[in-house]
Design brief:
Layout: E1 8-12, H1 25-37, E2 42-45, H2 57-71, E3 77-80, H3 86-98, E4 103-107, H4 116-127, E5 134-138, H5 140-143, H6 149-155, E6 161-166, H7 171-181, E7 186-189, H8 195-199, E8 205-208, H9 215-226, H10 230-239, H11 241-246, H12 254-262, H13 279-291
Parallel strand pairs: 1-2, 1-8, 2-3, 3-4, 4-5, 5-6, 6-7, 7-8
Helix pairs in contact: 1-2, 3-4, 6-7, 9-10, 12-13
Length: 296
């Protein structure tokens, strides 16, 4: 079996901004510590939720380095280093590793996209040139590319490709991936609302948006399942479905940042082109937070 990056709940952490849209590194340190104090199992830095696509290269690396230093080895730091430029992604991976990242989260190529054979070539090219483990990220609703189970089988043969964050929403496909790859490829849910269903198919946790505001709840849900308390895990999956869905009432990470600001966490705005939520959506988000016991 390959070395496992983490088991349980990993937070796809937002990148806090100041009012002038510069990165708020002091707040980032605070959030890293808050997450760890609330029992999160891993932190994913500069992913989609972390607004990777609007960060300059120097900012990208500084955000990763800041998180690494704040975590101080307490949890794995997984850096978002995916790109639609294969060579660029290698450079970003190696620079992220140099500032302390423990692993990489690599989204499929987007816009220019590629075939299934191209995915194999793309990921193997990168995996041959890095020394840290790679978690593939499959989110066809954003990228227009869907990694097929047979492609996972081929990729799982590489020693550095160890897991996938699966957000294709297709449980039948995930079951086939598990059947074909077995223990050669760990599976994390990429959707909060499918955490327990995917764990029932052999998944080992979730890379979560919701855990930006409820880290202990998401950790406990995963841990309960892993410890055999499936009823408790299932109850939390259902109980928090409303707020899970509200995290995607607008384009991620707009709602989660809005929720954190409602909870007085002062994480700032999203960078353009992401824009503030409509009043109607904000009211729905407030109601879902109240259902979770928050006073907003």
């Amino acid at each position: 079996m390959k070395k496992r990056v983490f088991t349980g709940a990993g937070t796809a952490l937002i990148t806090p901004m100041n009012k002038d849209f510069s990165v708020n590194y002091e707040k980032l340190e605070y959030l890293v510590n808050l997450q760890i104090e609330n029992r999160i199992d891993a932190l994913i830095i500069c992913g989609t939720t972390g607004e990777k696509s609007t960060l300059r290269y120097d900012e990208h690396l500084k955000v990763i380095e800041t998180a690494v230093k704040a975590a101080d080895g307490r949890v794995p730091i997984i850096a978002g280093t995916g790109s639609n430029d294969t060579v660029y992604s290698v450079e970003l991976c190696n620079d992220a590793a140099a500032v302390g990242a423990d692993a990489f989260l690599m989204v499929t190529p987007y816009y220019n996209k590629t075939s299934q054979a191209g995915l194999v070539a793309h990921y193997n090219y990168i995996a041959d040139r890095v020394k840290k483990p790679i978690i593939l990220y499959n989110v066809p609703s954003r990228t227009g590319v869907d990694i097929k189970p047979e492609t996972y089988k081929e990729l799982s043969r590489h020693k550095n490709i160890v897991a996938v964050k699966e957000a294709n929403g297709n449980l039948s496909s995930i079951a086939t991936t598990r059947y074909l790859c077995g223990d050669d490829l760990d599976i994390y849910s990429g959707n909060d609302d499918q955490t327990v269903p995917i764990m029932s198919l052999g998944g080992i946790g979730v890379i979560s948006v919701l855990s930006n505001i409820l880290p202990k709840i998401v950790h406990n849900m995963c841990q309960n399942y892993l410890n055999g308390n499936i009823k408790a895990a299932m109850e939390d999956q259902i109980k928090y479905t409303g707020i899970m869905n509200a995290m995607f009432i607008d384009v991620n990470p707009i709602p989660v940042k809005e929720a954190m600001n409602m909870l007085l966490m002062d994480v700032g705005p999203c960078r353009l082109p992401l824009y503030k939520m409509k009043k109607e959506s904000r009211e729905i988000l407030k109601q879902r937070l109240r259902e979770c016991g928050f006073m907003v």
